[in-house]
């Protein structure tokens, strides 16, 4: 039995109305459902397998690449000539990070200590840890600057001590020893008779404090109760602020711990975080949208004002005493040693700094700092944090080891910590927080489009029937098979039965 077009039109009209209704409901309800799922998944909660695992054990590839500035003319520097440097590296270390001593509190915060270990990756490096490089001797040149205002007799005694232990202005040692520590009779002497003067009680190395260590006790908000606070630092080592700097604003501990941020970010959002290694809070700013491994992200970079001096950027006056813009004086949190942090190769720094040494060539691709973050969740997809360690060195009267060194902020090493979400974690992340919300968004448009198409088809069928009915306005007759005649209503004429 055939179905009339009128019946088909009615069915299509009902289906179309339902489709439009369902799609319209999704337009308003869909974002709410998606946002609720995001809020549920980004909270720090052991019941959330995806986000909690990423937060606790960071199961993604993470590497530290170290570059040394090998000194080519140490003898000439002692005579007053400009340093000539040659970049050596990278020496790449796989980094393992995990959180321990995790304690949840009643005020929707959680405390933890994050530990880190480094493992040398020779196949990703240009050489191995036995490579020999020459860098300034921080024990000699750093101590000389620290003691330059001491009585002249004390400086003479310090110089005699250096000679006794055969310590010169420059060190030539294997990369591994410079990184993780080397034996030094001077270090042993200082630790015995002047305990606490050096940052380490064991071997002296540039990263000896980092390996198998933690970054202090962080207490951060879990996001329960207010997702806008998730990952934000409540305290560090029990402190709401530090006392390294000259102003209250500069001492504040702001933002997150630097691994995740609150969700629902916009181009107006910034990425504030507290860095124990830099002893201060920092803030990255939005640069541009990108797509990282199939996931839309926002790229955030360090603003030029990050390490600007107080003259160029007054809010940074609290980080002074300052030198040229592009240098952060961290002596106040590094045992008063004359140490400065900058971007690699003095990128984004005062151009005059490039004229103080030979061998630097800054550019954004190699030396810029950035974080690519998924704005809806606040989860970083690609990270590259690059910083340079510099030391102020100069000739100090009474300390012959400093010779005639011209005053200069000397680059020693720079390192980049990089990581990106990949493998099963990326698949799960993309499925749960990107693909499914996208499918739901497409469903609403498809449902509305199909609904409108059904309604349009029903309307066409109805109009077609109306046109056909107008073709017969008088009573019409049909001849039956037996030859008899019967009358039809005009409204049924030319219709199919």
Automatic annotation (TrEMBL):
Compartment(s): Cell membrane; Membrane, Caveola
Q: Where mainly located?
A: membrane
Q: List the keywords (alphabetical).
A: Cell membrane, Disulfide bond, Glycoprotein, Membrane, Receptor, Transmembrane, Transmembrane helix
Write out the GO biological process terms.
cholesterol efflux; cholesterol import; plasma lipoprotein particle clearance; recognition of apoptotic cell
Please verify whether the record's keywords include Lyase. no
* InterPro entries linked: CD36/SCARB1/SNMP1, CD36_fam
Any one GO MF term held by the record is: scavenger receptor activity
Q: Does this UniProt record's set of keywords contain Repeat?
A: no
A single GO CC term for this protein reads: caveola
- Which parts of the chain span the membrane according to its record? 7-34, 442-463
The membrane topology term of the UniProt record is: Multi-pass membrane protein
Q: Which family does it belong to?
A: Belongs to the CD36 family.
In Swiss-Prot or TrEMBL terms, this protein is called: Scavenger receptor class B member 1
Q: What is the lineage of its organism?
A: Eukaryota, Metazoa, Chordata, Craniata, Vertebrata
């Amino acid at each position: 039995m055939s179905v009339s077009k009128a019946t088909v039109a009615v069915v299509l009209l009902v289906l179309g109305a339902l489709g439009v209704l369902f799609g319209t409901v999704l337009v308003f309800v869909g974002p709410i459902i998606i946002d609720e799922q995001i809020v549920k998944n980004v909270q720090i909660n052991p019941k959330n397998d995806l986000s909690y695992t990423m937060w606790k054990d960071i199961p993604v590839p993470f590497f530290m690449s170290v570059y040394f500035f090998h000194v080519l003319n140490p003898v000439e520097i002692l005579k007053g000539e400009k340093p000539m440097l040659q970049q050596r590296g990278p020496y790449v270390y796989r980094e393992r990070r995990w959180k321990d001593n995790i304690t949840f509190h009643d005020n929707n915060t959680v405390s933890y200590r994050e530990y880190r270990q480094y493992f040398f990756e020779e196949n990703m490096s240009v050489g191995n840890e036995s490579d020999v490089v020459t860098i300034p001797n921080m024990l000699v040149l750093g101590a000389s600057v620290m003691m330059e205002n001491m009585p002249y007799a004390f400086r003479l005694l310090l110089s005699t001590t250096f000679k006794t232990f055969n310590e010169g202005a420059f060190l030539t040692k294997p990369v591994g020893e410079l990184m993780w520590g080397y034996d030094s009779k001077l270090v042993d002497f200082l630790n015995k008779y002047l305990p606490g003067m050096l940052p380490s009680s064991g071997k002296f190395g540039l990263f000896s404090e980092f390996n198998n260590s933690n970054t202090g006790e962080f207490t951060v908000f879990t996001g329960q109760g207010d997702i806008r606070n998730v990952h934000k630092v409540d305290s560090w080592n029990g402190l709401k602020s530090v006392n390294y700097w000259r102003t209250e604003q500069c001492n504040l501990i702001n933002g997150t711990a630097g691994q995740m941020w609150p969700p629902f970010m916009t181009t107006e959002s910034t990425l504030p975080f507290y860095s124990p290694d830099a002893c201060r809070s920092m803030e990255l700013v939005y640069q541009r949208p990108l797509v990282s491994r199939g996931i839309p992200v926002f790229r955030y970079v360090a603003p030029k004002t990050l390490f600007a001096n107080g003259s160029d950027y007054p809010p940074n006056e609290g980080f002074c005493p300052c030198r040229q813009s592009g240098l952060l004086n961290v002596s106040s949190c590094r045992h008063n040693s004359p140490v400065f942090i900058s971007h690699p190769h003095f990128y984004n720094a005062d151009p005059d700094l490039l004229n103080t040494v030979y061998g630097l060539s800054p550019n954004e691709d190699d030396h810029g700092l950035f974080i690519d973050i998924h704005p809806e969740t606040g989860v970083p997809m690609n990270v590259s944090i690059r910083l340079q360690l510099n030391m102020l060195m100069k000739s100090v009267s009474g300390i012959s080891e400093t010779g005639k060194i011209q005053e200069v902020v000397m680059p020693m090493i720079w390192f980049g910590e990089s990581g990106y979400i990949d493998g099963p974690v990326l698949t799960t992340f993309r499925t749960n927080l990107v693909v499914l919300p996208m499918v739901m968004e497409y469903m609403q448009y498809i449902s509305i489009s199909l609904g409108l198409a059904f309604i349009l088809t029903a309307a066409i069928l109805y109009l077609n029937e109306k046109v056909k009915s107008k073709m017969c306005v008088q009573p019409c007759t049909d001849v039956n098979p037996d030859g008899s005649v019967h009358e039809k209503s005009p409204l049924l004429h030319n219709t199919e039965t």
